[in-house]
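Suppose a colleague, Dr. K., hands you the sequence of a protein chain of 552 amino acids and asks what its three-dimensional shape might be. Before reaching for any lab equipment, you can write down a predicted structure in token form. Begin with the sequence itself:
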Amino acid sequence: MICLLHGYLLDGSGSNLWTRSVVRALVRDGATIHLVCQEPHPAKYDFVGEVYTYAADGTRACVLDRETEYAGRCIMHQPVLGDTLPVYVWDDYEEFEHVIPMTEMDDLALEDYIHRNVEVVTRVVHDHGITVMHANHALLMSVVAQRVSAWTGVPYAIMPHGSALEYAVKPDERLRRLAADAFDHAAGVFAISDEVAQRAAEAFGDAVHDLDAKLSRLDLGVDTSAFLPIEPAARATNIERIGSLLESVERGRSRAQAERFASGLAAQTDVAAVCAGVGGYAAKQPDEDVETKLATIDWSTDQVIVFVGRLIAAKGIHAVLAALPIIASQSPRARLVVVGHGPLREPLEAFAHALSQGDRQMAARVLDHAATIDAGEPEHLAAVGMFWDALALRGELDAYWDAAARYLKPDTVVFTGYLTHREMAWLLPCCDVAVFPSMVIESGPLVFLEALASGVFPIGTYWGGMKVKIDRTAPSLDEGHGDLMKVRPDAASIVADIAAAVPGALGVGSNYRRTLRKVAEDHYDWGPVARRLRELLENIAAETQMHARTAG
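The predicted structure, expressed as tokens, is then:
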């Protein structure tokens, strides 16, 4: 019996998406899975059959018990944690007033969180005959699994993701020691790429014994039944479907806020003040006027580029915007759809506005303001200035700004706000090219695979897990076309590479819809991924039981 430990929600991307996708695939195959997580709305996930909450006083309450259409059953367990949720990078989480990066928590707060989860997981193990645990992330559920295992003898495996390694393990020696000890006692470690395995080895050094011997590869996946290629003639119907899906959904930024923001930008008042004046809305919701904005695109003739991800400099979306004048000069019907939320939402929109006006000074001011908000790695945002400097050296900067003013319109770039995978399954197939220019090494992103399944030509930074996926896809394309998927991740090259790759991809991408789809079906469907996970975990359980019998 498997218990999957995931300290966060089921909604969203990354490990949240991995968890809900794998669990759905497992119960579709007939497995019973116990899932420990913090999802506040489990009833909206059709694979969840039962849900129990666990109060601090030990009281357990059943808050959902229903039949599902699946052969197996997902039983969810939610520890009631109060108002504090430890995270790797700050984000807005429903029902948690005190969302705090782990690196900012004192030892007492960390121990309280771990202890609370250990109590609940230990109870789940005893009550439900759990034989093996799977812990998502290097922290903190790995530590929970380790302590439960020490009490119960039930083995566990860990699947690290990049965010915990980069933003918790590496910068904080306390957290590194906790994670290293959990990895040292784990029966298995599942790496979703060679790059993640290498990063784990580098993070822990000699503190984890026999890490290589514990490692097993476990690919990421995509729901090929949800993301399906369509012909251009069907795109408008898909977009209408998104509108119907959003009818009862709470909205984020309002039309009135959007209008005030646009007026402030047009007046060329202080950029920082204009951006700051748009706060106070639910960022992880779609914009109130998203349907109207999507309707400005001619889905039968426009060439649609899409970016999906958190709106921070590390994801590279500013590089896509900076490349747009060159892209649009070669592909005048190009439009860019930006899906996501994050602290740079308004500065990025202000940057797009400045480009469309050919306003160099305003664009530079916006980037300076963005740097005060997202102070991560300075070279991320500096990539735009490096690109402009290179153009100036070649005598091409004036032509760049002329193209920006000539070809970019106020609606060339459409910001939608946050959309879930329910909506993305209808939006992605309507696009021609998807760009994922992350400036930090990632194992995914999973949306790269969703683009493949949708028949959308993907472009990504050529390193980490993205490199593996590009290399697996490129041999299926004609000679030279695979290179269009590759963007160098260094700040000095990324904007120019995007500007060079996107027009070519727009030109050939439609020829590869079925080819890209086949790559997704053959290599990345969630069904085989989930079965591989189940096999690995059941082998760990069987080996532990065999050793116990031998020792007895």
